[in-house]
Write a structure and sequence with these properties.
- Helices cover about 10% and strands about 30% of the residues.
- With about 120 residues, the chain is mainly beta.
- It has an eight-stranded mixed barrel.
- The two termini are about 15 Å apart.
């Protein structure tokens, strides 16, 4: 199981731990709902095979969480100078979780090697 801890801003899997942030821009989404990060709960996550390119806002990896509002895990950052760099820096999202590209790629490869439908638990 993958665990994201909101209080420590870390994601862990199989004895590995990486920084992962849930900072987001306040406001409303296109449906008029208030923005907030991925809620506490359990999800089924799957990763695209990295490196992938879904645009600078998403970086070099993408992990779907199965969240109904599509709050997923990715890298990048559209306002960052080098959103595809291994360590691109930090920039808030619209509700997703963000990791450094190199760390998210590593997590993605672990997930794919383990069957790519991995439980994700978000805890306080």
């Amino acid at each position: 199981m993958i665990t994201f801890c909101k209080s420590t801003q870390t994601i862990t899997y199989k004895g590995h731990s990486w920084e992962c942030r849930d900072a987001f821009f306040e406001g409303q989404n296109e449906a008029g709902e208030d923005r907030y990060s991925l809620p506490i709960g359990t999800y089924t996550a799957s990763a695209e095979t990295p490196p992938c390119d879904n645009g600078p806002g998403y970086g070099t990896f993408y992990i779907e969480t199965g969240d109904s509002r599509e709050r997923d895990i990715h890298g990048g950052g559209s306002a960052l100078p080098e959103p595809y760099a291994d360590r691109q820096g930090w920039y808030p999202t619209l509700g997703c979780l963000r990791m450094q590209n190199i760390d998210g790629q590593e997590l993605s490869y672990f997930m794919i090697d383990d069957g790519n439908e991995i439980k994700l638990e978000v805890i306080a």
